[in-house]
Amino acid sequence: MSFLDTILDAVAAIANAFWWCIVALWDFVWWLIPALWWFLTWLPQRLLGVTDEKLPVGETASRGFDYVRDGAQGFLDAFSDSVEMLIEVLLALLSRPPGTNWITGRGFEPYVAVWNEATHPFVIVAVIVVLVYALHRRLTTAAFVTLGFLFILDQGYWEETAESLSLVLSACVVCMAVGVPIGIAAAHRPRLYAWIRPVLDLMQTLPPFVYLIPAIVFFGIGMVPGLVATVIFVVPAPIRLTQLGIASTPLALLEAADAFGATPRQKLWKIELPSALPQIMTGLNQTIMLSLSMVVIAALVGADGLGVPVVRALNTVDTAKGFESGLVIVIVAIILDRILRVDRK
């Protein structure tokens, strides 16, 4: 499937998803009325000990998952294809130089003979180090990043690292695309934030393994369910920090903007977002760190990356492999943290 076909399928799926949401809302209303009546008749009996029947929480959740899977299958398939395409593009950038069959990697042949899959990791490391030095202007940070990546290459974990980085960056794109707009809306509407705060608490409190169950039901085994579980676990961080940054905009700046006749859009882009940029960048940092912490859990549902050797080491009680892969995950986390930790005066 080409990139254009994936985009067109995604647009059509979104349109179908809107219509399905309307139908699902109507079905939910018709389900809620008898469900409330059943609850009102069941509760007194349960309190009096007349019946031992418990609330059918698990059964209801299972029926709800089946309803969503069957009704929104088209949207779920298109979403899965779009996410897989994004992950494949990022993985191709990190794994292969330009060449034939560049994205899929099947029958891959580089355009430049010396710039092949063996030398490409060194090119990526060099580009990252140059960007780090341009961003921080510190030789120590650039040297640390260089040593960290050279250690990963020496241990032979570059392929797993590229797969994990592809998953982390894809989750970061989705989380920031969802979290920042919701955080802005929540900052402008305190009542909305009061409503979504318990939901955010729930998303961060539930064990991440719980998210894997509906992810497998909806998307099967592979990278997509790992990304979905990661996004659900991580997205509260950018929402909260964006809301905090926008809500903490100095009142004097807002009053000055009103005095000069700024529109709400101008206030957002020229006052609130620049003022909230440190908090938004902190949200980006937390998004990447939390996403990286999910690589082992994502490996349990078939996601590739650094979590795979950790799970294999756990199953075989291989201390050496477990320590190697665990240390590589720590080094990747420290490298990403140092890259994103930009001092702002």
Question: What is the element layout, followed by pairings?
Answer:
Layout: H1 3-48, H2 57-71, H3 73-95, E1 99-100, E2 109-110, H4 120-136, H5 139-155, H6 158-188, H7 190-205, H8 208-219, H9 223-234, H10 236-247, H11 251-259, H12 264-293, H13 295-299, H14 307-316, H15 319-340
Antiparallel strand pairs: 1-2
Helix pairs in contact: 1-3, 3-6, 4-5, 5-15, 6-7, 6-9, 6-10, 6-12, 8-9, 9-12, 10-12, 12-15, 14-15
What does this structure look like?
With 345 residues, the chain is an all-alpha fold. The chain has three domains: 93 residues, no CATH class; 37 residues; 183 residues, MetI-like (MetI-like fold). It is built from 15 helices and two strands. Strands 1-2 form a two-stranded antiparallel sheet. A hairpin with an 8-residue loop joins strand 1 and strand 2. Helix 1 crosses helix 3, helix 6 packs antiparallel against helix 7 and helix 6 packs parallel to helix 9. It is globular. The model has no long low-confidence stretch (mean pLDDT 85).
